[in-house]
Design goal:
34 strands, single chain, four-stranded antiparallel β-sheet, mainly beta
């Protein structure tokens, strides 16, 4: 028989006022079998910890001590493990802390190079690619063996490395180098370097591995690269397809799950631009909020959720209707977001107020559910759901 666990915060907790205002409906929560577990992991850069949130009961489970200055996080797609990138002390080496999700304990540490800032995993969850911004390199990490197996030289201050879904291309955004490096991960060889992307950051790759889009955060454009493949039976090299004008300070690209469009968070224009991926055209640009820094598209491709860093409101944009839908009051300095596995909750990381706002996503009741305290300066989040034997 399946059981339903309701948040204890419906009775008492830091979000009591919000619950009184919005109500606490059992229909908002899915049915969970007894062996189901789900946690959201939040990196706290100011306290060298990770806050573990019990998603089933919507409460803080525990805080884990990790390395110095955790800044990025990823969940294994195949194992019950979480990988935390610790940037380290200024001028020193960083590391990866490995968390066993079944026991919520740190079980290993992997040494990296200076100032690692991002992580991406291959589809099998065996290899991690970590951008070391302080040493102009990418660490290739064997997650099973818990060690670095290669170090790839790239441009100046890499801040984002993305592996393509087919694992045949690694795209690296070099912020200070104003460039993008394209690498063959099988050999570690650089296939191409593309200049002219000021403040290159946050690369995304289409689900079919055909194109990469890179935000030029120090300017007002998004670079589009057609990735190497075959056309008419002949091999085609990587090539610059176009540079598209968007708003000022594009810092994040949110790809729809179906791969149809990308939404660009323009932090200095307080807007979001919509890119049509098949035609490389910029559609409309919409005023969205004060300093938008992160976007997240719902799994049904209908809604865009936007975190506004200089605001206490998270904005919801209706993609199908082409209009701003609503706003939800959250904490201060929203900087990262993640959905629960069922999609019924959205977790919004608030860097300035040191908490996570939990927002209900049901169409009839999009509202703040509760607020969960974290460590100091939370900055990234990932959700992990699994079943135990």
């Amino acid at each position: 028989m399946k059981r339903r666990k309701l948040p204890s915060l419906c009775i008492l907790g830091p979000g009591l006022l919000a619950l009184i205002l919005t109500g606490c409906s059992q229909s908002d929560f899915p049915q969970y079998p007894p062996n189901y577990r789900e946690y959201a992991y939040v990196t706290n850069g100011g306290s060298d910890t990770v806050s573990v949130i019990d998603v089933v009961n919507v409460r803080l489970d525990r805080d884990l001590v990790v390395g110095r200055n955790p800044v990025a996080i990823a969940a294994s797609p195949t194992r019950n493990e979480i990988y935390v990138v610790n940037s380290g002390a200024v001028g020193g080496a960083g590391s990866i802390s490995v968390i066993n999700a079944e026991h919520n304990a740190v079980v290993a540490s992997i040494t990296l190079h200076r100032q690692p800032v991002s992580i991406d995993l291959d589809a099998a969850g065996n290899i991690a690619y970590v951008a070391n911004s302080g040493s102009n390199s990418i660490s290739v990490v064997d997650l099973k063996a818990r060690r670095e197996i290669a170090r790839l030289g790239v441009g100046e201050e890499p801040v984002g490395a993305r592996i393509s879904p087919d694992s045949k291309t690694l795209v690296v955004a070099n912020r200070r180098g104003n460039s993008v490096t394209v690498i063959d991960p099988a050999t570690g060889d650089v296939r191409a370097v593309f200049e002219g992307c000021p403040g290159a950051s946050d690369p995304v790759i289409l689900p079919d591995s055909s194109k990469a889009f890179i935000a030029c955060s120090a300017g007002h454009q998004v670079m589009v690269i057609a990735l190497a493949g075959k056309q008419g039976g002949r091999p085609v090299p990587d090539r610059l397809e176009t540079l598209m004008d968007v708003g000022r300070g594009p810092v994040h690209l949110a790809l729809k799950p179906d791969g149809g469009e990308i939404f660009v968070s323009n932090s200095l224009s307080d807007s979001v631009s919509e890119i049509y991926n098949t035609t490389d055209e910029v559609g409309d640009t919409y005023l969205i909020g004060d300093d938008p820094v992160r976007g997240l598209v719902s799994r049904d491709n209908s809604l865009l959720y936007v975190a506004n860093f200089r605001s206490r409101y998270m904005t919801i944009y209706s993609i199908d209707d082409g209009r701003r839908d609503s706003s939800v009051h959250v904490g201060d300095g929203s900087s990262a977001m993640a959905f629960s596995a069922a999609g019924h909750l959205l977790f919004v990381v608030d860097t300035r107020s040191d908490d996570v706002a939990v927002v209900r996503t049901a169409a009839a009741n999009r509202s703040l559910f509760t607020v969960i305290p974290t460590g100091r300066a939370p900055n990234a989040i990932v959700d992990k759901a699994f079943k135990v034997p």
